[in-house]
Amino acid sequence: MEKIKEIEKPPRISLKRSLIIFIGNVIAIYLVSYFGLGVKLSDFDDIMLFVLFISIVNAVLWPILTKILLPFLTLTFGVGALILNGFLMEVFAPLFGMRISGWAIVLLPIAMAFTTTLLSALLTIEDTSSYYRSVLRDAEKKRKLNIKHYPGLIIVEIDGLAYDVLNEALEKGYMPTVKELIDSKSHTLRMWETDLSSQTGASQAGILHGNNENITAFRWIEKENDNQMMQCSGPQKVNILEKRISNGEGLLASNGASRSNLFSGDTDDVIFTLSKILNLKKLYNRAWFSVFSNPSNFARIVSLFLAEMILEIYSQIKHIVKNVRPRIRRGITYIPTRAGTNVFMREINTSTLIGDMMVGDIDVAYSTYLGYDEIAHHSGVRDEDAWFALKGMDKQIKRLIECNKYSPRDYEFVIQSDHGQTNGATFKQRYGESFEDFVKSLLPQDMKMYSKMSSNEDHFAEAYIPFSEQIDNLKKENKKDDQKLTDSEVIVLASGNLAMIYLTQWTHRLTYEEINSLFPELIASIVKNEYIGFILVKSRDGDLAIGKDGTYNLDTDEITGENPLKHFGDNIARHLKRNSSFKHTPDILVNSFYDAENDEVCAFEELVGSHGGAGGSQTKPFILYPSDWEVSDEDIIGAESIYRILKENLEKLKEK
To answer: What is the largest CA-CA distance in the chain?
Structure first.
């Protein structure tokens, strides 16, 4: 193989940018000292000399220290980088009549990065090349002598972004980089249709492993396995799921990298990949060097994290004052969750992908960006918060594309989503009672019920919990759930606007006729509820989709009365039939109503934007791929179809 492209060098830092960094650092140190937060000064002039000196020290020592301490920096999720940076300043501060102590060791690097970032934003000076300069030296050492002559592939997933919402973002000017890809005709934008259920677990299983068989919903009960609950979250459960769906030929099996995904795609080159996140050996990865290669980079991420928390607090107040509807109570704990997904994970993803590209050895990398999905769930699909997340996402795509100039080989890009979301007030907000309580009211009072109606854990919240605490919590929670599941006679679960009812006194999936015989009011009352669209049950006559005014026999395609599926897409019968064939489909599968005029569903969990069932944009994600790829003009149905498109064209890249 031979080198076929000229590799540019990132431009050196400009004088203007150098001044901004210098002034920002001086101001930050002065303010921390002024407010008595652990920095003591003897003379203001000392700050300027100290900033110049520490810049030289960092330039010389930081690359060496980072290489030596990379495992520590990784296993502390970057906190070690703040401590190391602060420690260097603490050691050399006395030479300039300064003293740094206490929390200032961590606070000072954050304050310096925050002030510099703020000044850069106010003066519209964005030094994107700094993303690349700090990684270049290490990347050049890692590069192989023989550079691959064919392009690599970077696949960016924007979690939860529907095709129609993407088009609105393009029209409003929020995503100029993506728009340029389309307008230049270098890339082709297509809509594709998810399976049922329309959630990350089913979609990423199909995309990364080419197999999402038996993933009924976000969470389900396995009657044959002593009513154990399986779900598309939690490192232990997802690890089991990956073993079930993998045949060793995943999308990333051949020299691939997984960055912040649910499943690994059969690669061991993983960062924040939930199926392998409890394996500490796999957590440590040399790709982390690109995150910590600059002493101020992680401090910048933390400062952006804190700024995002402030934005969320402001957003919650604004939504209350303006009485935005629909609205849910987001609470205090959601504030760092939003910042974690929309800043921390976003920046880690981009930094590690840039490192991958600059080395140039990886043939394919797949990375999930979670921010939009998390925000749309809580603020709304088209809320100002959601548009803000997409603007930030577009900047990440721009940085990745620009990195091609500094990579030893070209990389092609695919931008896609795994599902969409549909807005709407929740079932509880509309009906005045939760769905599980509604179901309980239709059953004998002495029946023991277990319910779990939140599916928002598919956004990898586990990644932010320290491992020792995480493992202890998992064990305690699993023991409690196992006991409750064992004692329960009816189990109700939710996945967005899709709900599952399992009657667990019986070890088989009950038929329509058996349910009606045992609980005469149950099915009729559920179907009559104005906020229910249809249910799916197994009958002696075939699989039935039952609505208020009609029944669709999925085996014979016969419709009695009004078609209960008419507002749920041309392929809904096909999706329901497939889901009904799965091993663990519930006794009753319930889908909420869909208001086509207002494009609304009602989730059975407390989320504004939801996905998991059918109705509206949640089943209509997008894929943006290079226009010279060979892709059929036929509709793209199901996540496994996306796997085939990516896998086939990935192989063809090697022929270029």
So the answer is: 88
Report how far residue 35's alpha carbon sits from residue 174's, in angstroms, rounded to the nearest whole number. Answer: 38
CA dist 419 and 245 (Å) reads 20
User: Model's pTM, two decimal places?
Assistant: 0.91
Distance CA 607, CA 64 (A): 47
CA distances from 368 to 39, 323, 375, 416 (A): 40, 32, 15, 10
Helical residues (DSSP H) of 581-621, grouped into ranges: none
Instruction: Enumerate residues 6+ apart whose C-beta is below 8 A from 55.
Output: none
What tens digit of pLDDT does each residue of 7-43 get? 777 777 777 778 888 898 999 999 999 999 999 998 8
What is the spatial distance between Cα 249 and Cα 647, in angstroms, rounded to a whole number? 10
Phi, psi of 73 (to 5 degrees): -65, -40
User: Where are any strands of DSSP class E within 374-467?
Assistant: 411-416, 449-452
What 8-state DSSP symbol labels residue 587? S
Q: Give me the amino acid identity at 176.
A: P
The single-letter DSSP state of residue 187 is E
Tens digit of each residue's pLDDT (9 = 90 or more) over 552-592: 999 999 999 999 999 999 999 999 999 999 999 999 999 99
Q: How far is the C-alpha of 465 from the C-alpha of 462, rounded, in Å?
A: 6
d(CA 449, CA 437): 10
CA distance 642 to 218: 20
Say how far apart CA 646 and CA 412 lie, in whole Å.
12
List the one residue out of 631, 622, 624, 623 whose CA is nearest residue 649. Answer: 631
SS3 559: strand
- Residue 421 DSSP symbol: -
Tell me the two tokens of residue 461. 């919240």
Q: Would strands 490-495 and 364-369 be described as parallel, antiparallel, or unpaired?
A: unpaired
Whole-angstrom distance, CA of residue 309 vs CA of residue 656: 46
Residue 219, SS3? strand
